[in-house]
Amino acid sequence: FNELEIQNKDAGQFFTPFEVALASARLCFDANRTADIIKKTGYISLYEPAVGGGGMVLAFAQVMRQAGFDPTHQLLVCAGDVDLRCVCMTYIQTSLYGLPGKIQYGNALSTEAWALWHTPVYVFDLWMMKERRKARVLQEAADRADSGTEGQDASISAKEERTASAPGCGDTRNVEQLELPDMRP
Description:
This protein has helices at 18-28, 31-41, 55-66, 71-74, 84-96, 120-124, 127-146, 153-164, and strands at residues 44-48, 75-81, 101-107, 112-118. By secondary structure, it is of the alpha/beta class. The chain has a four-stranded mixed sheet, with helices on both faces.
């Protein structure tokens, strides 16, 4: 994409080189915290509001796999971009890598959403049901925290609950699923 020079220079698009994305993912990935969250809720969520071509997402999935986790079953990608070409690139890459994801075409700053595309793994592995289960677990943990019966796990729940309700990750009102054009002659 960069070599073809078709990025939107006027919008200030910059695509992170994969080696830099991989280094960033290694710096911010915490295997112990990830294991705690997965043990509690079944998976972790990754939110990328300006996803570009999906390089940071793929780097994170690679680091997660190297740490002994399975991102195809333990990672939910929630990503978006204002450039439809970027949304398409990310959708294709996450789909080919077998990652469950919700890729949103929209503006994360204004919370406008024009389309939401679910990867095949998200649909076929019933991730919508997993999200509902996670929401119940987090709500129960929040209720226990409010009553003072839960200690340190409440901080994990609060952070995870914010991630689960991030734009592009939770609210799917007023968006439509990817529709492939009719290619018949």
